[in-house]
Amino acid sequence: MPYNTRLGICIPTYKRPDQLRLCVRSLIASAAPHDVPIFIADDSADSTNTALIAELQALYPHIVYEKNAVNLGIDGNIIHSVDICDCDYAWLIGEDDRMLPEAVPTALETLGTADPAFVAANYSYVDEDISVILREKRMMLEADRSESSEIFLRQDAWGIGFIGSCIINTQLWRGVQPEKYFGTYFAHVGVILESIAGKAVNLIARPLVLNRVGGAETFTWSGDAYGVFHGWAKMTALLEPIYGKEACDASAASFEHNHGLNTLRFMMAKRADRLYTLEIYRKFIQGSQQSRMHKLAAHLIARLGPQPFRILRTLLFSVRKQQNRRITDLP
After folding, report:
1. Is 9 helix (H, G, I), strand (E, B) or coil?
2. What is the pLDDT of residues 26-45, one digit of tens each?
3. Strand 89-92 vs strand 7-13: parallel, antiparallel, or unpaired?
4. Which domains does the chain have, with CATH numbers?
5. The pTM is what?
6. Which of 42, 125, 189, 276 is the most buried (most CB within 10 A)?
7. How confident is the model over 238-261, as a mean pLDDT?
8. Distance between CA 203 and CA 6 in Å, rounded?
């Protein structure tokens, strides 16, 4: 039976088969009634995922698997996972995230018979075990809406740094050369924003994806956490010939604000994982425009050991898990 070519779901994967299994099972629950295919681009050089892929393909016939001939890295594999999708739209998702049951029908309804330039789907933050909602809506949208690509760049594009938010028009996507964005950690965003210049963006207010967050072990890119967060400014700077410097600077400021970049809370969280250090302080904080008191506090955090911050994070997560809504609707 042929699959639905209106929408495909794309997973750039590496070496987390246990997470990949649960992710794909959540996709199948939402995609199967609509024959929506799943495309998996595997960047692992060994056979880590081989047995799992056979298991998943036995569960669902519309799984297209490609093992990369060489390791493409984070940016390259995200791009490649979209490139192997032969559908009108490609919905990216991380191998450790989950789709809610209503995700695919909601996306198909949004796509309808029109051809939006891009769709940004809202998402929830969840704990590492995917048992508790930590934040119901990551993007504070009260209702679905449409806005120009420039307004989106300035105000809301920060939200699609999370790949599970991205429903991509593949025809427009294929008109952009992605290589210049490699090394920013946000190559997919650069390609999307370049491809939609002068067009409208659709935003879905209802969260459709669960984004797994936690300590450094949650993220494949955690070893360069500060490089990741500062990569947004590098990526938007490359868009200045298209959108102008002022709009791109506004996007960088919006990203920094919405992620709390360089706040004391952010630094304490990164210090808990040994990702914020004196070297990072000297590189990003010491010569910045922050106040003298902020720099003093930042310097102290960098000098303290990570254990107090680990304990504090554990206590805060424990309180949130007791107070927040539990997840009960995943397969």
Report:
1. strand
2. 999 999 999 999 999 999 87
3. parallel
4. 7-224 (3.90.550.10), 262-331 (no CATH)
5. 0.92
6. 189
7. 96
8. 18
